[in-house]
Amino acid sequence: MASAPGAPGRSLLVLVSLVTVVLVLVSAVECYDGHHAAAARSAVARRSRLAMGTRHVRHRRTATPHRYVLAEKSNATGGGSAKNRSSPAASNNATSPTPAPAPPAEPSKHHRNHRHRVRNWIIGFVVGSLAGVISGLVLSVLFRLVLNCIRGRYGSRSGVTIFTPKLIRRAEHLAFLEKDDGLASLAVIGRGGCGEVYMAQLPAEREGAEPRFIAIKKINIKKSADTPNNLSDEESRQLDKQSRQIQSEIRTVGHIRHRNLLPLAAHVPRPDCHYLVYEYMKNGSLHHALKGGGDGEAALSWPARLRVAVGVAAGLEYLHVSHHPQIIHRDLKPANILLDDDLEPRIADFGLAKAMPDAHTHVTASHVAGTLGYIAPEYHGTFKFTARCDVYSFGVILAVLATGKEPSDPFFTQTEEVVGLVKWLRRVMLAGNHAEAIDPAIAGAENEEQIVLVLRIAMFCTADDPKERPSAKEVRCMLSQIRIQQDLV
Fold first, then answer.
1. Residue-number span of the structural domain to which 114 is assigned
2. Which of the following is catalytic: 33, 180, 272, 331?
3. Of 78, 84, 217, 326, which has fewest CB within 10 angstroms of its CB?
């Protein structure tokens, strides 16, 4: 992903920060030792001066004149025991021991032990923290390498790259795509601007296992043997455009994972084309589901449509907010929203998607890309695509879900004044004719309030000024509240 190249730089920054912290703590320990040693020496000096002063005071208080000392000495030598007995005070003064001066005090052993314990604790803490961070970085790198190998980020020798090992367990399951006639026996389930889409069944892992199906999107990137050599400039530009789109889709959706995004399962390169493998969605696209199945199947109910709206908003929030760098889809429309077995929406077809770095605010294109009717008005004039342009496209999808009409519906060309879906919706909603805007297939008193709320959100998302449009996160929160109310009813 885009954040991988910056990992070594971040690791180096972390190591430099840790070394700086170690140096600061070591300096603090040295300052701590020096401060306490100086404090101890000053305390010793103060106690020595105090002891000296006390000794001089005592000497001045207890010392006797020199002549009396001589007399006492003479009396003591001359056998003056009686005089000594008759003057007990003098005897006591003469015989009382004079206190010896106190030796200079030294720092106690307890103080030294405490100082060493503090220093050892700080050094041990720093060394342990440093060792833990380094081991964590090493384990994270090893884990990323193992995860990339499991996900197939590093392609096999045959060139097959597997991104979803839960679906494609072995590269041998896609070996038939390496043959020239590998798609001859497969059914075509769709066609797009880049190529056809086929359906295939994977080999069963064991007997009795449920069959697994995949959708294979073929994109031509080079002239094949049956392609005429005298291609026009427009056809050559179209081939170059397809090649750029396939590379963009591989880089963009190869490693993103979200329940409302259709992940790329595998990539099989060929000399003249690329095969993109996806999980097969048997319920098809939202475009076909809104019109009902060809076998008489009814169109989607309102609760199912509201669930689709919330799911698409959640997937769009992931692309715009949670994923780094931000991804702009640039081609949101019902045909690019697929429905799984539980009618959970999956945003697909990232051929026009762009990864926008965090320091950028928009993506500049050389020409307008997308589907008419879903493109934001400012994109036509500036060629600058922002996240709010995706929000505009999503607002059109909300209008389609509630009204049952798409921008290309003949209804908008049969009127005297040619207007699009967005302008028509504004006119109807501002006039208060809510019932006119609601799809008859989902009309009902129990759903009208929620449908009107969704239509108002669609108007907010399709505002002419991009600054007045809500973000994908705000839209998802508003739709989630409506769905909660619908569940309570």
1. 1-62+109-151
2. 331
3. 78
